[in-house]
Amino acid sequence: MTPSAFSYARPGNLDDAVSLLNDHGDFACVLAGGQTLIPLLAQRAVRPRLVIDINRIPDLDRIEIRPDHIRMGALVRQEQARLSSVVRAEVGGLSEALEWVASPVIRECGTVAGNLVANTPGSELPAVAIALGARFIVTDRHGERLVAAADLLGPGCRLAADALVTHVLWPRSPGLGGFYEVARRDGHAPVVGAMVNLGRDDCRIGLCGVTATGMACPTVAGAVFDRFPTALEPDEIDRLLARDVGKPFFGNAFVGAHYRREMAPVVIQRAIAAAARAGQRG
Ligand SMILES: Cc1cc2nc3c(=O)[nH]c(=O)nc-3n(C[C@H](O)[C@H](O)[C@H](O)COP(=O)(O)OP(=O)(O)OC[C@H]3O[C@@H](n4cnc5c(N)ncnc54)[C@H](O)[C@@H]3O)c2cc1C
After folding, report:
1. How far apart are CA 230 and CA 248, in angstroms?
2. For residue range 141-181, what is the model confidence (pLDDT) as tens digits?
3. CB 134 near ligand 1, within 6 Å
4. pLDDT tens digits, 103-148
C-alpha cells in the first residue's frame, strides 16, 4: 500500500521542530529512524497530515558522559549505542539487550529514543529503561522537563502529541545488568524478555512481551545481592509475577498466554545469570 498524502517538514533546529509540533500536534508525526513509522504509514495505520523529520536537528546524535548519567540524543542509532564503549562500560546490560533488537540493518537506522517512544509490544528497550531507571528529557512549547521511564512507558502512559523526546538519560553504573529473551526466530520480537538490574539492595526487573499494549512491566524484588549469584528462587519470581503482572499476559495466534506465563520465570533467572556473569567479568 501507499501512504495517504501528507506534508513533510525537515526543521534544522529544535525550536522549529517544537513549534511545528505545537501547531499541528494531533495531526503530526515525528520521524526519527522510520523503522516503525514508515511501515505504519504504508499500511495507513497512521494518517498524519504532517511528518516532521528530526534528522537535521544538530547535536542529537551524541552520547555524552555526565557526572551521574549518560546522555543519549534522540538521533543516536541503536547500532551506534550497541557499539559504544561508553555505553558498554557505564550502562550495565543495555549493549547486551541491543544485540537482541531486530537486525544490524534495522539497528543502523532505528534510534534508541524512537524505539522507546514507540513502545511496541515486545520491544526490548522499554524493559531495559524501566529496570535501569532511565529518564527522558521531553520538550514542548512550555520548555523542557524530566520524565521517568516508568511514567512514559508504564500502563496507560503515552507521550503527548505535541512533545518531543530530545534525550534519554541512563544512570551510570546503576548495578549489574543482564538481559535474556526467548524469541521465535533471531531478530524477532521476544515471546518474553527480561532485563534485570542487580543493585546493592534490590533487584529491578523489566519484562517485555508479556502484554499486548507494549507495556514494560516493572517489578522490584527485595535484596538479592547477599544471595547472589543464586539470586531469586523460582517461587519468589512466581510471587512477584502474580503481584506485579497478574492477568495481562497475552496470547496471540503464534504464542499462547500460558506459554508466556510459564517462560517468564525462566527468562528472569537467565537474565539474573547474565548479570552475574557480567559481575564476574567486571
Ligand atoms: C523488520 C523489523 C524488525 C524489528 N525488530 C525489532 C525487535 O526485535 N525489537 C525491537 O525492539 N524493535 C524492533 N523493530 C523496531 C525498530 O527497533 C525501530 O527502530 C524502533 O522501534 C523505532 O525507532 P525509529 O527511530 O525507527 O522510530 P520511528 O519509526 O521514526 O518512530 C517511531 C514512533 O516514535 C515517534 N518518535 C520517534 N522519535 C521520537 C522522538 N524523539 N520524540 C517523540 N516521538 C518520537 C514517532 O513519531 C513514531 O510514532 C523492528 C523493526 C523492523 C522494521
Report:
1. 28
2. 999 999 999 888 876 678 999 999 999 999 997 678 999 99
3. no
4. 999 999 999 999 999 988 778 999 899 889 999 999 999 999 999 9
The closest-lying atom of ligand 1 relative to the alpha carbon of residue 165 is: 42
Report the chain's terminal Cα–Cα distance, integer Å.
50
Asked whether 114 lines ligand 1 (CB < 6 A), one says yes
In this structure, the residue with its CA closest to atom 43 of ligand 1 is: 164
Sheet containing 190-198: give its strands across.
Answer: 176-183, 190-198, 203-208, 217-221
- The three cell numbers of residue 105 are 540493518
- Backbone phi, psi, residue 228, to 5°: -55, 135
Identify the structural domains of the chain with CATH numbers, from first to last. Answer: 7-53 (3.30.43.10), 63-171 (3.30.465.10), 176-281 (3.30.390.50)
Contact 240, 221 (CB under 8 A): yes
The model's pTM is 0.92
- Give the residue whose CA is nearest to atom 36 of ligand 1: 114
CA dist 196 and 178 (Å) reads: 5
Using CA positions, which residue lies closest to atom 33 of ligand 1? 118
Residue 246 banded pLDDT, cuts 50, 70, 90 = low
